[in-house]
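[Q] Does anyone have a clean structure-token version of this?
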Amino acid sequence: MFKRIVLCLSAVLLAACSNDVPQASSRPPAGNPSGSVIVQVYSDIQCPACKSAHAGVVKPILQKYGEVVRLEYKHFPLRALHRFAMDGAESSECAADQGKFWEYIDIAFENQDEISYDSLVRWAEEIGLDGGILEKCWKSHSKRKIVLADYEEGRKLGVDSTPTFFVNGKIVKAGFDTVSEAIEGELKVFEQRL
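[A] Here you go.
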């Protein structure tokens, strides 16, 4: 009898906690997880400027600085402008649960013009994920709090459009040259401390 009471109370407490606190994302950073420079990009999967920044800023930055930069993707869905922004963000978090967050982000940006409810699942299958598991996760909205936590964090930092880049906590104009320059500046500061 005592065990049943403990189990019931534990279940109630866990359920109560899960409603108040967003679960942690399983999305990994790109680049070096222990990098001395942290680059954050607030992005929207359906935003055309974000698609351009992903190809022209994010990928080249990782190619050039991947050994020293920790790149963190932050969701900033502009729902009033982009019908599938929230669905895409939640789907990418569901892809992270299956270990392919960045692959999902890549395919979503590469095929952004085709975004639809069907494509969100199809893209998962194309990168080797279980589409049924992703669809169930996405439709349950179990990742919505994670996405909204990123969004609220961005709003508090002054993000009002996408893409928005930060280098070690300082906002930087979106562009390969400007982000690269900020990274170089932070690397010099880091070297001077050594």
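[Q] Thanks! Anything notable?
[A] Confidence is low (pLDDT under 50) at residues 1-22.
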